[in-house]
C-alpha cells in the first residue's frame, strides 16, 4: 500500500513507475550490421583553369551500415514537450580508409584513355564496424 500525502507526491510516484516501465530496452532486438554494398563512382579532374581533363568511373564494393536500433518515448514532467525521447541510430563506429583504382577513364570528348591517364586512384572512407548510437551524438 502506498500512502500519498500531497498531489505532487502522487505525480512523482506515477512518473517513477512510468520510468521503470519505459526503460526496458531490449538490446537483443537491435539489428545494426555492417553489410557489403556496390557503389558506382564517377570522378572528374579539371586543370588549373577549370577545364575538364578527364572523367573516370567504376563500380566499387564497399561496406555500409544498415539496420534498426531500439528507441523509446516516455512521458516526462521535466521536458517542455511532456515526453522524453531516446532515439538510437545505426551508424559507423569505425571508418577505414581505402585506395580505390578507377579503370574507366575518358577524355572530354568521350574517348577512352589508354596512356598514363587511363586509371585514377582515389581515397575512400568506409564503415569497418557499425553500432547503435544515440541520434545526434557526433562526439565519438
pLDDT below 50 for ≥5 consecutive residues: which ranges? 1-27
CATH class placement: Mainly Beta
Spell the H/E element sequence: HEEEEEEE
Number of strands: 7
Which fold does the CATH topology refer to? Cystine Knot Cytokines, subunit B
Instruction: Kindly report how far apart the N and C termini lie.
Output: 46 Å
Q: Helical proportion?
A: 10-25%
Percent of residues in beta strands: over 45%
Number of domains: 1
Main structural class:
mainly beta
The number of helical runs is 1
Radius of gyration: 26 Å
The CATH architecture can be named as Ribbon
Q: How would you write the strand order of the largest sheet?
A: 1-2-6
Largest sheet: 3 strands, antiparallel
Average pLDDT figure: 80
Protein name: Bursicon beta
Organism: Carausius morosus
Keywords: Signal
GO biological process, one term: G protein-coupled receptor signaling pathway
Features:
140 residues, single chain, Cystine Knot Cytokines, subunit B, elongated, three-stranded antiparallel beta sheet, mainly beta, Cystine-knot_cytokine, Bursicon beta, neuropeptide hormone activity, signal
